[in-house]
Amino acid sequence: MGVYIIKRILAIIPIFLLATLLTFGLIHMSPVDPAEAYLTAAHIQPTDEILAQKRQEFGLDQPLYIQYLNSVIKISQADFGTSYVSNKPVWDEVSSRMSATIQLALGSILTAIAVSVPVGFLAGLKKGGGIDHLSRFLSFFGASIPSFWFGYLLIIFFSVKLDLFPVEGIGTWKHLVLPSVTLALPLIALYTRLLRASVIENLDKPYVLFARTRGLQEKLILGKHVLRMAISPMVTGLGMNLGKLMTGTIIVEAVFSWPGFGRYFIEAIFNRDVPVIQCYVLLAAALFIISNLVVDLIQMYIDPRISSKGITER
C-alpha cells in the first residue's frame, strides 16, 4: 500500500502542472487584457502609456514560456497575485472565505451520509417495503427539485413561519442547518439509490451464502461484510462531490447570503479579476485531485482485494 500511495502522490505533480498550463493558456486566449481589466477595476482611464506600463509591471511583455514559468514559481509559493478589485493578496482573500465553504461542504456531506446510509441500506434489505418506497420518494424528490427553490421553501417554512433558523449569514450552528440540508438533498437522492442497488447486488454474491453456511450471525454478515462492500460506490460519489462542494456552491451561497468561495468567484468574473479566477480554477483542480486520492485510499481500506496497482484482484 505504501508504494501505491507514493505513486499516487507523485502522479499529482504532472496533473497539477497540466492544470496550470491549461489555466494559463485559457487566460491568455481570452480577449480580456489583464492590464486593461486591472485599470477598469481601479476606475482608471486606460491609455496606451498606462497600459504599456501595467503590462510591463505584470510581466506581460515577456515571452509566454517565461510568463508561465514565473506563474508556476509563484503558485508553488501560494502567491496568486493581487486582486484587481480589493488590491489585496488573492490567497489571503481566498483563505478567509474557504473556512465558510468548508463548513458548508462538511455539513452537507455529513447530513447526506446520516440520511442516505440507513435509508439506502434498509431499502436494499427490505426491497419493496415501506423504507424502499421512502427511498424512491427521496430519490425522485431530491433529483427533480431545484436547489435554489428548495432553499427558499426551507426559508419560508423554518425561518419566516416557525422562526427556528436564521434566514441568512454565518455565525452559529443554526446558520448552517438550512444551507446544509439544501445542499444535502440531491446527494441524499443519489447516495440512497446507489447504496440500495449495491446492497441488493451484494446480497446475491457467493460470499454472503458462504458466510451463512458457516453459521455467522446475520447482523455480522450484513454489517461487517455486505454494508462494507456495498458502500464502495457511495464513497466514490462522495469523493467527486466533496471536491465540487469545496470549490463553492454558488447558487446556495447566494440564496442564504453565505460568504463562501463560490460567491467570491462569481464577483471576480463580473469584475474580470483575472488573478482570482486563476486561483479558483487551480484550487478547484487541486481539491478534485486530492479528493480522488483520498477516495482511492478509502477504497483500498474497504476492499482489501485492491492491489497496489489499483486493480481489483478477482
TrEMBL record:
It is a multi-pass membrane protein. Keywords: Cell membrane, Ion transport, Membrane, Nickel, Nickel transport, Transmembrane, Transmembrane helix, Transport. One of its GO terms (cellular component) is plasma membrane. The keyword Acyltransferase does not apply. The keyword Cell membrane applies. Pfam families: BPD_transp_1, BPD_transp_1_N. It is found in: Cell membrane. The chain crosses the membrane at residues 9-29, 102-125, 137-160, 172-191, 242-261, 281-302. It comes from the Bacteria. One of its GO terms (molecular function) is nickel cation transmembrane transporter activity. SUPFAM superfamilies: MetI-like (SSF161098). Residues 98-299 form the ABC transmembrane type-1 domain. InterPro entries: BPD_transp_1_N, MetI-like, MetI-like_sf, Nickel_NikB, Opp2B. Belongs to the binding-protein-dependent transport system permease family. OppBC subfamily. The complex is composed of two ATP-binding proteins (NikD and NikE), two transmembrane proteins (NikB and NikC) and a solute-binding protein (NikA). PANTHER family: DIPEPTIDE TRANSPORT SYSTEM PERMEASE PROTEIN DPPB-RELATED. This is Nickel import system permease protein NikB. It comes from Paenibacillus sambharensis. The gene is nikB.
